Amino acid sequence: MATGALGWLVIAAGGTGHSGAAPPSVHLGGVAAMTVATMGPYAIPAVRSVAFASPWWRARRSVLLSFAGFAGAWIALASLLHLGVESLPASLLSGRALAVLLVAGVAVSALGAARGRRLRSCARLPALRAGGVEADVDCCRAGAGAATACARLCWPAMAAMLAVPGSWWPMAALTAVGLAERALAPRGRRLAAAAYAACATGLVLG
Questions:
Q1: 117 has a pLDDT exceeding 80
Q2: Phi and psi, residue 128, nearest 5°
Q3: Could you identify which of 18, 75, 78, 169 might form a hypothetical disulfide with 30, taking C-beta atoms 3.0 to 4.6 angstroms apart as the criterion?
């Protein structure tokens, strides 16, 4: 999606800004850009379902509202995760060590059959009303609900990305592995687990 591509352009330009002594507004802007870049593609199934469920004359509006709900919910969660990661004392656990533990945990959980079933349920949407403000609310709620379902499984990967803000490759790798895992679910559990384990190993090696 165009918004995801824009987020990656901001990252490539060095505008993530969610580390160091930057002002809070810059931190949050960087977190938002990173979230849209990495989580934006995960909105596609839910947004597509909303488009098909809406009358043709308001499909574009429905898509925009549902994506706004999805992105807004994820940005709010990522901001909270960012605060949590930033508040972790470096003497207790470094950001890289935290990222390794989180991704290793995802690798283990990827072997479970329940995770595959939950991945396939991420794009299940409530019924949408046909028009008016009620339909707008339903579209936003559908996007936010899809983001919440996604976050139940993806928050460790997002926290890992936030823990190593100076490194862009974990963002790209974890995003790609997560998308592949969804495409293969509920099959391919071992392949997904191996891919996450490879990401954890890459973080160890730096």
A1: no
A2: -105, 135
A3: 18
